Amino acid sequence: MIVRAKVPIGLGYGPQHGLNPAGLFTSFPGWRVFAPADPREYLGILNSALDCPDPVLLVEFSSLYDEVFSVTEADFTAKLPLEGVRFVRRGTDVSLLSYGAGLSWTLAAAEELAAHGCSAEVIDLRALDSPAMDWKTLVSAVSRTGAAVFVDPAAQGQAIGPRVIAELVSRHRLQLPMDHVACADVQPVAAALERQATAGVPEMVHTVRRLLEP
Predict the structure, then answer these.
(1) How far apart are alpha carbons 124 and 36 in whole angstroms?
(2) pLDDT higher than 80, residue 9
(3) What pLDDT sits at residue 190?
(4) I need a surface site. Which of 123, 126, 141, 203 has the fewest CB within 10 A?
(5) Residues near 160 by beta carbon (within 8 Å), at least 6 away in sequence
(6) What is the pLDDT of residues 90-149, one digit of tens each?
(7) Quick one: CA dihedral 127, 130, 132, 138, positive or negative?
(8) In 3D, which of 46, 159, 40, 140 has the Cα closest to residue 98?
């Protein structure tokens, strides 16, 4: 079974329709949860999910529907692994982890950090359920850069970032500076208020700088 959940964060739908359910579903064992960040990822994961014996949740961020991406004929039949992470940008000073619409937010923050001499690595988690998350690669990446910030396109109360950080600390003994950025625990309908409630580049940059301060 494949369930598609549309998440219109930033489009003024309010809490009834705009909240991100990924964190809720990842708290239940048995679900496979994915939030593709672009069409190539979506097609590859969907094709593999059709063969998956487990129930699969595909979180679709409506803001991505209006963006233009380039795909090939091969992308429509390609299958991507239902586990592992994707390195979108390489860096040496901090690892920025995100998924879905949060990936573009994170890339924008990485550009801002680069303008100030900070090299940020951007990682797309791809698989959000704990059993499929590539802990080995995450530990290796964060150990190499020495710090990590999880950027979560979800309300603070629904964020999975704290759980990921706790897992890295408790089970994988990763004792390095780590923090997370999420949206506010409100979901305004008014566009100006919603922008203030959504995780933004200044907040991400501030979090990274505070984390890296000697």
Answers:
(1) 9
(2) no
(3) 74
(4) 203
(5) 22, 23, 26, 128, 150, 152, 154
(6) 999 999 999 988 999 999 999 999 999 999 999 999 889 888 888 999 999 999 999 999
(7) positive
(8) 159
Lookup: tokens for 89: 């940008």
Q: 91, exposed or middle or buried, with CB in 10 Å at 0-12, 13-18, 19+?
A: buried
Torsions phi, psi for 142 (to 5 deg) = -70, -35
